[in-house]
Amino acid sequence: MPARRLLSPRAPRRVATVSVHTSPLDQPGAGDAGGMNVYIVEVSRRLAARGIAVDVFTRATSSDLPPVVEMTPGVTVRHVSAGPFEGLGKEELPAQLCAFTAGVLREEAQHEPGHYDVVHSHYWLSGQVGWLARDRWSVPLIHTAHTLAKVKNAALADGDRPEPRARVIGEEQVVAEADRLVANTEEEARQLVDHYGADPRRTLVVPPGVDLDRFRPGDRAAARRALGVPADAVVLTFVGRIQPLKAPDLLLEAAARMLEDDPALRDRLQVHVVGAPSGSGLEAPRRLEELAVRLGIADRVRFLPPQAPDRLALHYRAADVAVVPSHNESFGLVALEAQACGTPVVAAEVGGLITAVDDGVSGVLVGSRDPAAYAAAIRAVLARRALLAAGARRHASAFSWERTADALVAAYAAAAAEMAAGAAPARRERALGALWPVAGTQVAW
Ligand code: UDP
To answer: Short name of one Pfam family for this protein (predicted)?
Structure first.
């Protein structure tokens, strides 16, 4: 390892953001692109506005992609060649991490030493890359997991594949190595400490934000006209990648239950499903369509492809209720965006949704996976919609990407100060000792 460069505890000038498996240039709502992409875009923009340059390293997934794209002034997306452009699934990417890391290190080597002040990795694959870059560049590694395999495996949906042991091990390594772990919520921070042995002093909670200018309340009738939805319709909206984890099937079943209980609703009820398939949900749209037919509500369900943010805001505004019935969510940006548009949310009482929704104030959290419980919660929200709509906007207004960016800059500076003081290496040895309690392994390291 090269000699440690002394860093002053100042705000960084240039951040290397690593996002191996999905690009901030991708449209979220399909495949591997979702909340993490939105997070990286929004945070990078805010860092650039604070005079901090951001380079986002992501895998090149098409030969058409230029090697370098300026996403916005101060934010550069760098496409790294690692494996074939197309046809490589996320589960195959661990074998490409060496190639990816080499690409990142070679790019940095073209500059003067000290080009980057910090590495911020997103998701465990990127954490593996950031780990090596951190050691080579002697800068802090900040890691945001976004999802955790152990948590995901504990709440698997029917038809969902468990996350492999290789991912669990990879996550444990990154948790041991990172100078700061950024959790979306207190619960995620606890999960990192309890299930992954994270050091609580290096684990901090930084809530994600929402763009309150883009996602703002508006004229519901106008939004409905723009989308071709009748003014008197009762619209229940699901937004997200179609995968078992997100459970759009539960919304369909709840809608069918509502029609059974109140046949007069038949002509007015509409269920909108916005998003495209992802991962083990590749078969899901067809299965969802079949389910709608089986439930006798096929004529009440509209499937819509992923929408760009401004159009998505129209969908939130047009909805009476946004429904987020996920088996688990590390946060659930969709819930926050809907509320920012003044639309109350019915969501599963799990993970980050407990923070994202203020139960009884901005929507209703449902503790059961029984469609009847969802139907009852939706009815309860419809009955108090005006009050909950005001609560929804109020609750969402407490979140902001500006605050997220400020907290991250503070974390970058604190980690750099700790590294300059020489605290980081000793901590790493301890962490590795805990991971591999074999004396020989520790010495070899
Ligand atoms: N999204 C979008 N268009 C769509 C569907 C989703 O832009 O058609 C975005 C949405 O605005 C949100 C993100 O995808 O910011 C999904 O994030 P969330 O945290 O809800 O779920 P994740 O994808 O992280 O599981």
So the answer is: Glyco_trans_4_4
